[in-house]
Design goal:
The protein has 22 helices and four strands. The radius of gyration is 23 Å and the shape is globular. The chain is 58% helix and 4% strand. A two-stranded antiparallel sheet has the order 1-2. A two-stranded antiparallel sheet has the order 3-4.
């Protein structure tokens, strides 16, 4: 990768990050044609080991001192311990695992959003995770590995403030959540910009890669683009690699979702496999309700005045309202800080963050979409304050706090009852000292509508270990409401993809039978 695009920065983490980028892009291209199965993984690992020994990359860690190794070792043990807890983020069961199952079984499937709209995202980070999930990382803890890489970067670059962020990020280590790489990689790129890294070609490429991992991180490519043009005076050729990644991102989304950017139905190219407009509309209504933490119906929200929209967003029941208030307060503080500093680079950061914030507030102002803003603002405001000693103290105290929350989830459930994911946390089990904890359910029923044979999880809302092709009960209801149902483009080949078709009267009756079966199952339990 370094031979093609140059060196991001010297050291072991520079090579690791370049490797992550290279593998992710390569596997994204491969997944259009082949599943990311054990054969792809085996070949990739053998090539990696060959290069590792041929170029003597095992010598790279020797530049760390004994104190560095001690810090890396202790922080890594904390990360490994935290990463071994049961997954508890709801998206792990409803989005991450089903996505990985499809990628390892079939690769990128055309029109997969017709089966489950959420699957249309297919984050590049999930492609990266899927490629290692066959035997290298069967417990799906790639985020735990990334946190250890983040520790290596912190020690290698001697930017100790990053240690302050690690404890909060431990909460993302049990699942392949794209939020974690989005936050970590954006902080690394931001740090490199502040440190004066002038490899604008690779910095912009990485910033677009972060956007491909998590599109709500749009502020990062905007920042790097502004810095490249107005500070580093880069030419258009320095943007080519990033533009290629952006093009690949658009093609991936068009292939799986039918539109260039998930979940926004704009840029309609008239593709035959795009999702049904009614299903997209239902999803949009749901996103609006999620903005208000499902505390109001869509019809109630539509009747809000401009003042009501703001007032009700700030006065939601539970912790969400506090996060919303803190978000706006943080933006105001950062705008004032920018005005006082009057530095071009900080101004560009402020502009980028404001662009992202406006887009999030306009589409779906859920707190999880602007969590990264807190990290960025704290990083810029405190960059020069935290030395090694202060950072280690903060890391130690906060790590103990967050691990206590994971070990004793009743603390979260008691004091933060509105944090719904906390109710899924299972606490500490001694087995996780030698094996990461995972859930198994494996109960499902098989049905057929038209030419599509599919599985539906039995008495559970998420299809996290239901064999693909699978449809979650919620999307089955959405399809029935819209009067459509997914069908195979080629009845003999799932890889050829899916389209939606209006149901015949017989198919409607069949779907209604399935829905009744699901409802009766819930009633019995």
């Amino acid at each position: 990768m370094e031979n093609l695009s140059g060196i991001l920065f010297q050291g072991i983490t520079g090579k690791i990050l370049s490797g992550i980028l290279a593998i992710s892009l390569t596997w994204t291209i491969i997944s259009f044609f082949f599943p990311l199965n054990i054969y792809i993984e085996t070949v990739s690992i053998l090539l990696g080991l060959l290069i590792f020994f041929k170029n003597k990359l095992y010598l790279l860690p020797y530049h760390f001192s004994k104190k560095d190794f001690t810090l890396i070792g202790v922080a890594s043990l904390v990360i490994l311990f935290a990463g071994a807890f049961y997954p508890y983020i709801s998206d792990h069961f409803g989005y991450y695992i089903p996505t990985l199952e499809w990628l390892t079984e079939y690769g990128l499937v055309k029109g997969i959003s017709n089966v489950d709209l959420t699957l249309g995202q297919m984050s590049v980070w999930h492609i990266f995770q899927a490629g290692f999930s066959n035997f290298s990382d069967p417990f799906l803890r790639i985020n735990t590995v990334l946190l250890i890489i983040y520790v290596l970067y912190t020690v290698e670059r001697k930017n100790w403030i990053h240690l302050c962020f690690l404890p909060a990020l431990l909460l993302f280590s049990q699942s392949p959540s794209p939020d974690l790489p989005g936050i970590i990689l954006s902080l690394i790129i931001l740090n490199e910009l502040i440190a004066g890294n002038k490899n604008t070609s690779l910095l912009f490429a990485f910033s677009v890669f972060v956007f491909a991992v998590k599109p709500t991180m749009i502020w990062l490519p905007v920042l790097v683009l502004l810095s490249s043009v107005f500070i580093f005076k880069s030419t258009s050729k320095h943007l080519l690699f990033g533009i290629f990644i952006l093009f690949l991102f658009f093609i991936k989304n068009l292939w799986t979702f039918g539109y260039p950017i998930f979940p926004v139905a704009i840029g309609d190219l008239g593709l035959s496999w795009k999702p049904n407009p009614e299903v997209v509309k239902i999803s949009s209504k749901f996103a609006v309700m999620k903005t208000y933490d499902m505390q109001y119906s869509y019809e109630e929200i539509q009747k809000f005045s401009a003042v009501d929209h703001i007032k009700n967003w700030f006065s939601l029941k539970g912790i969400k309202s506090k996060i919303n208030i803190l978000f706006i307060l943080s933006l105001v503080i950062f705008i004032l800080f920018t005005a006082i500093k009057k530095r071009k680079f900080i101004t560009f950061i402020c502009i980028s963050i404001l662009i992202k914030s406006i887009l999030v507030l306009a589409f779906s102002a859920q707190y999880r979409f602007f969590l990264d803003v807190f990290f960025v603002i704290f990083f810029v405001l405190s960059y020069e304050y935290f030395n090694q000693k202060k950072s280690i103290v903060v890391f130690s105290v906060l790590s103990l706090s967050f691990i206590s929350m994971l070990s004793f989830p009743e603390i979260m459930q008691k004091y933060i009852p509105s944090f719904r994911s906390g109710s899924l946390a299972a606490g500490f089990e001694k087995e996780q000292l030698y094996k990461p904890s995972i859930y198994k359910y494996e109960e499902f029923n098989t049905f057929k509508v038209g030419n599509f044979n599919f599985n539906v999880v039995h008495n559970y809302p998420y299809s996290f270990d239901t064999p693909v092709p699978a449809i979650t009960p919620a999307y089955l209801l959405d399809d029935a409401k819209a009067g459509i149902f997914p069908q195979l483009s080629d009845k003999n080949n799932v890889k050829k993809g899916f389209i939606w078709k209006k149901m015949s009267s017989d198919e409607k009756r069949e779907v209604q039978k399935i829905i009744n079966t699901i409802k009766n199952t819930y009633k019995q339990n």
